[in-house]
Amino acid sequence: MLTRLAISTHEEVYRVEDRESGLRGFIALHSTRLGPAAGGLRMRAYEGDDAALEDVLNLSRGMSYKNTAAGLPLGGGKAVIIGDPAHDKTPALLQAMGRAINMLQGRYWTAEDMGMSPEDMAEIARETRFVAGLSKGAHASGDPSPVTARGVFDAMQAGAMQLWGTADLTGRAVAVQGLGHVGWHLCVLLHQAGAQLCVADMDPARVAGTVKEFGALAVGAQDIHAADADIFAPCAIGGVLNIRSIPELRARMVCGAANNQLATPEDAERLCARDILYLPDYVANGGGIINVAAEILQIAERDSWVADRLATMQANIAHILLRAGAEDVSPAVIADRMVEDRLLPQAV
Ligand code: NAI
Questions:
Q1: Which residues contact 209 (CB under 8 A, 6 or more apart)?
Q2: Which domains does the chain have, with CATH numbers?
Q3: What is the pLDDT of residues 124-170, one digit of tens each?
Q4: Which of 224, 235, 291 to mutate to test the pocket of ligand 1 (most atoms within 8 A of CB)?
Q5: What is the pLDDT of residue 114?
């Protein structure tokens, strides 16, 4: 069922196959230096094995960075299943993945990612205990989005302190791209803080909801990055900060939940050159993994534990911004450096 692949950048990588259920996929453990490798399971109709392998390698490395930046005793890992979740997902296939994960004896913990639901995690949990993101059970962590939104909001306050000398967001204009799970909760917090919202989503009903609830200004999805705002908050898709969009930004700060906001590492420099403060995505959106970590680590007093971790995350962000300012480099460079210092010598 598991075939180990020799890939020097990662501690362990496996091809996963189960003929009976039709399961095909990969599990990658990038680093277990700080604890068991943790990261979600993604199911996607990949073009082929190479594309799936590339994705699992990138995503697992990204989880090492995210978990380390959040100060968690967890390493980075990820799993992918090759297939269309709408047509190919069956209980037998998920259970087979559960058996594969179980064979790693806790060196890898899975949770939800694209194409997966809490019900799917429950199916996997029939075969292994190394699964989080469950909706029921003693330590079930449920929907991570409110905690992710809280972390993004805290990060914005740290950025505001750096830029404007106050964490108070009253009267600040914030352009929120994407009004899904995280975007909506972020709008709630920003509205409560007295910020002015302008919003965009592909779904007109979500836009209408925020206009009605929070008096938000609706902006076209194509134009939200260029809205006349103090802060741009990407909470939808990756790659939104790129060679075309960056010259059009009007905000002084970018801080949002979306993963992989920078299309290329050079885009961090482009933002710096325009004097736009960029809060590294994997640091700002760490609230979600903090929430899941409470389940993996079976924390009894989860609310206070999560609150403590969020406070530490905010302090960490403030530290990154200070160092970036002192060295006149992008916060993305400082964040990467801090993580890599902690991950050495195993990680690349
Ligand atoms: P979601 O799927 O609930 O919401 C995404 C929203 O973005 C949807 O309303 C969708 O219509 C909208 N959207 C898609 N493309 C768009 C575009 N081009 N312009 C404007 N709106 C667009 O996703 P969720 O859970 O809110 O996550 C948002 C982002 O944050 C994703 O990149 C996700 O990977 C990341 N993230 C989420 C975490 C969580 O706790 N849910 C944790 C860490 C990262």
A1: 179, 184
A2: 2-124 (3.40.50.10860), 145-286+315-341 (3.40.50.720)
A3: 999 999 999 888 888 888 888 999 999 999 999 999 999 999 999 99
A4: 235
A5: 87
